[in-house]
Amino acid sequence: MVKLAQQYRADSIVIPTLTHVRTVLASEITARAEQRCPGSVEAQKKYVKDYQMTISRWSYNRLIETIRSKAQQLGVAVESGFQPARASPQEQAKDIAATYHSRSSA
User: Where are the beta strands (DSSP E) in 25-84?
Assistant: First the structure.
């Protein structure tokens, strides 16, 4: 991500703020389990458990700290902005632009 920002001469990287991410993920995983295993509560529970084990293995915070460290070395600012999980690419871009504009006007 930092190399990409450097390649395009971006002066900052906006990282999504993951407010209430656990609640949103839990709802999505449960819905997905119901679709994949209709009528079987035990199979749904197993699906949820297996899925949660998979996503708990990577550390978002560690990833963000690595990006911040590398960006600081290269002089690229890192900021946080709200980005809805289920938005279209256009809506996500609009949210990122709003973060940029709020920084620029400050």
Answer: 77-82
